[in-house]
Model the fold of this input.
Amino acid sequence: MPCFLTDFGLAKSVVTGSKLTRTGEALGTPAYMSPEQARGDVASLTPATDVWGLGCLLFQAIAGRPPFQGPTPAAIVGQVLLADPPRLGTIRPELPAGLGIVVGVALAKDPAARYASADRLREDLDRVARGEAPRARIRRSGRRRLAVAGAGLLAAGLAVAALGRDRPPPSLPARADTRTEAEVLVEEARALPPSGRARAAELLGRALGEAPGRDDWRFERGLTLWLLWRPAEARGQWRAIPSGSEWEPKARLYLGLESLFRRDGPEALPDLEAAEGLGGPGAPLARTGLAVIRKDWPGARRAFEGAAGWEAALLRGVVEESDPAGDPAAAVRAYGEALEKGIPFAWIFTSRSTLRRRLGDLPGSLADATTAVVGAPAFPDAWLNRGAARSEAGDLNGAIADYSEAIRLDPRLGRAWSNRSHARSNVGDVAGAIADATEAIRLDARHAMAWSHLGDARRQGGDPAGAIADYDRALELDPRLARAWIGRGAARQRSGDLDGSVADCTEAIRLMPDYAVGWSNRAAAHALRADLGAARADYDEALRHDPRMPEALAGRAFVRQRAGDLSGACEDLERALEYAPAAWPHRAEYGAHLARLRRATSAR
Done:
């Protein structure tokens, strides 16, 4: 498809040198004119001037604004002559580093430092589109980009570059590469894709060895290490930034945020207070973090009111997730906005996965959890969270594998031991479940859920009295733990205390009215007390909350059978066997009972 270059009377023939304006008059629209045009230096106009214009168009396409702006044409011309264009990384941090280099070279003040022709610019854009580093280099360094740009944006850039392909390159002197070895290392690190973060951290470390005073590189290396989930090393980089450095406020802010996101409020407090005291753009974010630590939710919302940027979106998500009266759906949206605009930290995906699971979006939860695991395989919470999502999806063996990896990465992660205990109980590994819950309790004797999971394992192992003692301890630590009420109700039912079972299940239903297991367990206790009406009502309610719950379907089948509704009982048992997992321990028993019911129904 042919491309056409439209000229508005400002071109100069490179063959004749004829001019279309008066000597010394500035050429072009101020926001897009090159420095030589702004000076009225007509003799200096070459294809490099067109390269500048292409750079301006690329910048506009990427950033949504021209590279130089001002209240008057004269102010814009002053920017063109004296100021560097803004760093693309500060406007679109998700773009690859190479794209910023290409635009930076095209917008070099010195025509000899630009691309010699639009063909050269196009070649570097092609390299960036393939995930390679551009050949051209600029001396000034931009902020690191962490994700690959969309193909549409690069395609737009290639189309712009194609406008000048037929123009012959001028004979310009070769440019000397004046970069230091450290600058070369940093540019190489920034050009790497996200999969090369470990290599980027290594290259940035080598650059700092050559230039230890570059606090901007040190801060950047801290971010890279945080992305790799090497938090201790990240904190070491930020703490090495000296007092009085222009990077100190941001380093103290990120030290505080890193601790806050690990749910370590006491450690976050001094750094966030320091960041607030140093002022600057990060002060409102620091105030928000401090309000979160103090559980001052109205203050947290006031602190970031009107704040823009990915960090503000991220903190909005933290507030909505942490505030007991917060909106989980709003937190999911805020985290999505933060990921769109900012840095793909694994813990953001992990938090969003937890929220999505709470909201019933299990596919979204699993997708986020897997992204976190792939992006930061050393992050134990990512494996822990995916284990929980897999467990809820019925993939118990996958859940056990994920919990085991979390434990390998951090053997002191009590929640992983506790959750693996629960999964092991559900696959019939009673001894393993008891061992895991016991280890979780050894790590934290006040871990109420671990006591509840120990009770589950003991109940399944035929020790209802021991289970009731464990549930008692769990409820002593957390009276609002609905699962412990449900477990104790089941243990009391097994020991013959049907009234106690009904009472415990009723309390569980009060605490978690949408949890089908509470209704199903109370229905079973009612059925054992021969209160078939109450049992049927509770099974119906359980199935309203979870229409595919095999235990509730099987229980209602027996209630229907006792009420004389054999066809309804057959229908419920058929559905129970359809929805139950392949390894359901009751499958053979209920299958045989269904065959008997069918024979009885056909004999009528």
Summary: The CA atoms of residues 188 and 327 lie 42 Å apart.
